[in-house]
Every structure is written in structure tokens, then in C-alpha cells.
Design a protein that fits this description.
The chain is mainly beta. The chain has a 24-stranded antiparallel β-barrel. A hairpin with a 3-residue loop joins strand 4 and strand 5. The longest helix has 20 residues. 28% of the residues are buried.
Amino acid sequence: MATKGQSLKVRRLILISVAYILFAQAPAFAIDFIFTPNLTIQETYSDNIRLASKGQEQGAFVTEVSPGISIRGINGGRLNADFNYRMQNLFNAGGDGQTQINHQLQLNTGYQAIRNRLNVTARGSYNQQNISNLRGGDNINNLRARTNVWTAGTSVNWTPRFGQFANANVNIDFDYVGNDSADQLANSMNLRESINLFSGRDFKHITWNVNFDNSTQFRENEDDVSFQNTNATVRTWVDRRFNFFGTVGYANNSFQGLDTNNNGVFYTVGAQWKPNWYFDVEAGYGNNWHVSSNLSLSQRTHLSVGYFDRSIGLNTGGAWNASLYHQTKRSTWNFTYLQDTTTVQQILLQDTPFVVVDAAGNPLQGTDGQPIIFNASLPSLNNDVLVRRTANASVSYTTGKSSFQLGGFYEKRDYQNSTADQQTVYGANASWNWQFSRRTSLLLSPSWQRITGDAVEVPTNVNVNQDRYQFIARMTRTISLSFLSFGRSRLLNASIEYRFVQQDADLAANTYTENRVAASLFWNF
């Protein structure tokens, strides 16, 4: 998938990333690095490599040889750096008989320039995404309906104190989002400024805070998008448990959209009751009114719920927000529900090819045995502003040799500047990982996803109903390679995997079944 121009972009991003890690903070102090090269070798057979409809299936073998490297740097807690890169070399991807090179990269660094006062971070990524969320293929399928996506950004966080009078939190984020399908998704520069000024210890019976948040997305050959909110709140404390408050603010948002945004002045007056350290309830009345409550029984149990009805600003009308977190010795429970206004460019900034890194600095793999690259729940690439109602629930349970996970998700998207009206995506997933011997484990993972509503496709939009079923079974054996690692213990993971995918859709071209078998070796050396 990589062209000469794309390869140059990747080389530049890699060189800049590594140079930043190695040399950016060198004048300040030395930093310790852990370099971990790795290699993936995999042979895959698919009986429907092009994800074609029934009667048009084509089987093919795909060979993968993918070298990579992980770099971790840390020094005294002030500087940390994580860099992961993988060059995915595929032979006969999609059954085309060609060699394909794909790059995946992730960089995250942080530096405390002034301890507890000034922090600087940098980040970057390079990966592949499907242009349409109706097609669930990956690089092995090589459907062509994909694009390279790259991001780069930096943040500065400053927390000054003005004696006993006031404290502040100033944050500036600058990010760039680029891709090779600019006709579908505009490349953009994203600038966000956030300033929070709040009262210090000089204020005891009357406290206050002022907030300014401005986010602007400068798009190439498309209309810019900006979200801006300014507000101030004053609280009068009757005692340590009860206070009255008043909030006034101004919302100034700019984007082409429907009726979910109103600019102007908003106000709220109300009261808050905090009878103890673990519970509070608050209610406010005005043209933006709300009722909310928080319960924190311990560090392992948190519950928050709120209802907001806004006449001014983003997400006008009524909306719920809720979150639940509970942890026991063997289980973890999570639930979140929120409504927000965002863009696909902002969503892509949160999506990275190497989501999790283990204690050794190695990228953890997804349930399909590969670094997490394609996110099937992402919207199709488009330039709309969308209002999302998102719910996520999960529970995990661990025993001596097994770990279980069960999850569900729901997301309703209202598009603000499109012939499409809305799209709803929801589904469920589960997994069982059984460590049945010291070095051998078995993973079983079924999942289901449904898409209804509008396809949000360019140039036309059509109504769709689509179900995607997937089942994965993978056995992994860990082998010690100490005799090849010059005194350092290195591990080789050998695995064999079976994957079944069935997609049922109103659109005949998106209806298919695939059976896939893969044998792979993953080696850190």
C-alpha cells in the first residue's frame, strides 16, 4: 500500500520521532533507553481473501514478514518516551501476487520542564484505516478501500500559582491529522486553548472559577470548524457541606449544521450539598439547567450520574451523562454513557495502532493476533460534525488460570451537515483466555456488531442494515530462547489461529463469509 511519496512521509516521521526521543532533552540530563527489536513471521490462508459475495470467493495464501522496534526511555520520573514501529511486509495480500509494505508507528513522550509547573508532551502515529465502516477488511484482505492516516501533535501544560489569591491551569494542544484520501476526509490542523483560573486560599466563604475553552479545526479545502465556551462560576458557602452557586457564560460555535447548536449567553443558578467526603448532589436552574450526583465509596467504587438540559451551546436539549467503576479482587466493572459533539478528525487523534504496551515495552496484540490497527466501530471517513450518544459497558473476571471479558457498546451518530440523517452502531463481544499450562494458552473470542441507518458514503447515501459476526480461536505457546540471547532471556510466541467472519447486509456487495487460518511466530530479540 505504500507508494514512494508515502514511504518518504513515514521515513521523515520515524526520523523526527527517534531524533526527538534521543536528542531533544539531551542537554538537560541523560536518559536511559530500552531498545527491543522484534520480528513477526506469519502465514495466512483465507478462503475468501477479497471478501466477495457468495459464488465469487477466491482463496489465497498470504505471507507476512514484519520487523519492528520498541524504544522506551525514562529518567527520574521527569521524562518518559515510548516509541513503537512496525514495517508490515505482505506477500500476495489480497491474492494479487504483489508485495505490499505497510507502516504502523506510535510515539508518546512527556517531559516536566519545570517540576509540577510546566509539562510538554509530543505524540505521533501512522497506520491504516478503512474508508467505509461498512467494509471490515484489513491489510491482508487488501481491498484498496483503505487509506494511510498519520497524526502528529504536541501539548504544553502550565499550572502557575498566584500566591494565595488564585491558581491556574493553562493547556495548549496542537495536532495535525493527514490521510491519503483527502476527497473523503480533509487534512486538518487542530488547535485547542484551555484556561482555567480558580480561587486560592484567600477565598474561604466565597470561591470562584473562570474557564475558557477554544478548539479550532483548520481544514484543507473545507470549511473550518470551531467550538468555543467561556464561563464563570461563583459559590457562596453556608458551611462546609452546603453552597449556593451562579454560573454565567457565552457559547460561540461555528460549523455547518442542523439545530443542535445555539450561540449566546447562558446562565445557571442553584445549590450543592456535600454531607460527607464520598457523596454530593447538585441542581441548577436556568436556560442551561442540570441535576447531578457523585458517589465514591472507596478508591475502587465510583458512581456519577447527571441530566443536563441546554438551550445554549452544543448538544442542546436534554442529555444524560453517567459512569460507574467498581473493582473487586478478581473482577472489574465499567460503564460510561455520554453525549458529545465531535468530528472524525478528532476521533482519529484518539485512535492509535499500538494501544497498549506491556511492562517490557512490547505492543500488546488485539484479539485477531495483530497490533490493533483497524477499528471497525469508527465512523466512515467524512467531514461532517457529528453528535454522538455513546454507551460502553464491560466486566472482566480473573481466576488462577483463566480470564474472562464481556463487553457491549452503543453509539448513535447524528450527522450535522450531510444528506445522511443518522447512523447507529451497537454490538457485544466476549473472550476467554485459558492458561492451561505454564507456557501455553487458548483464546476464544466471539463478537457481534450491527449498523443501522445511513451509510454516509460518498457520493451517495443509502439506508443500511448490517450485521457482522466474528469468532476467533487461537492457541499460543511461549518458548524460551535464552540460548540465542547472549545471557538475556528472550521469548518466542508461536501461535495458530482460526477466524470466522460472516457479514449480512442489505447491500449485496457487503454480504460475505470468510474462514481464515494463520500460523505465526513473534520474537523479541
